[in-house]
Amino acid sequence: MSKKKKVLIFAHYYAPDVASTGQILKDQAEGMSGQFDITVICVVPSYSGTIESRYKTKKFYFEELNGVKLIRVRVPEFIKTDKISRIKNIVSY
Predict the structure, then answer these.
(1) Beta-bridge partner residues of 69
(2) What local confidence, expressed as pLDDT, does residue 73 receive?
(3) CA distance 76 to 87
(4) Tens-of-pLDDT digits for all 93 residues of the chain?
(5) How confident is the model at residue 1, as a pLDDT?
(6) DSSP-assigned letter for residue 9
(7) Which helix or strand (DSSP H or E) is residue 6 part of?
(8) How far apart are CA 6 and CA 52, in angstroms?
(9) HSE (side-chain half, CA atoms, 13 Å) at 58
(10) pLDDT value at position 55?
(11) H or E stretch including 84?
């Protein structure tokens, strides 16, 4: 039995975030998971600007979703219409 090659994906959003890029990436990662060992580094679900309380206690969260390993990074909440707030969110990642 051969060992799967590893693939690391670095993206801002990943499901269950509603960002279209996160949804497309989820489909692609899950599609490749049969041939590769996939790990995605992304932010905690935060597309709306708010963060669920369960993602506010640690800096990193290790999860698995449909055979894809996730390393989620906590970022600050932001206001979509406030450029400075968004920059702080992106830079902290």
Answers:
(1) 39, 64
(2) 96
(3) 10
(4) 568 999 999 999 999 998 899 999 999 999 999 999 999 999 999 988 999 999 999 999 999 999 999 999 999 888 888 888 888 888 887
(5) 52
(6) E
(7) strand 5-10
(8) 30
(9) 8
(10) 94
(11) helix 83-92
Token pair listed for 63: 């999860």
Q: How far apart are CA 83 and CA 81, in angstroms?
A: 6
For 77, the token pair is 């909440």
Q: Which residue has the tokens 């599609």?
A: 31
Q: What is the DSSP string of 36-83?
A: EEEEEEEEPS-TTS---GGGSS-SEEEEEETTEEEEEE------TT-H
Cα angle value 38/75/33 (rounded, 5°) = 10
User: Do 47 and 15 meet the contact criterion of CB atoms below 8 Å apart?
Assistant: no
Q: Quick one: pLDDT at residue 78?
A: 87
CB 67 within 8 A of CB 33: yes
Residue 36 confidence (pLDDT): 97
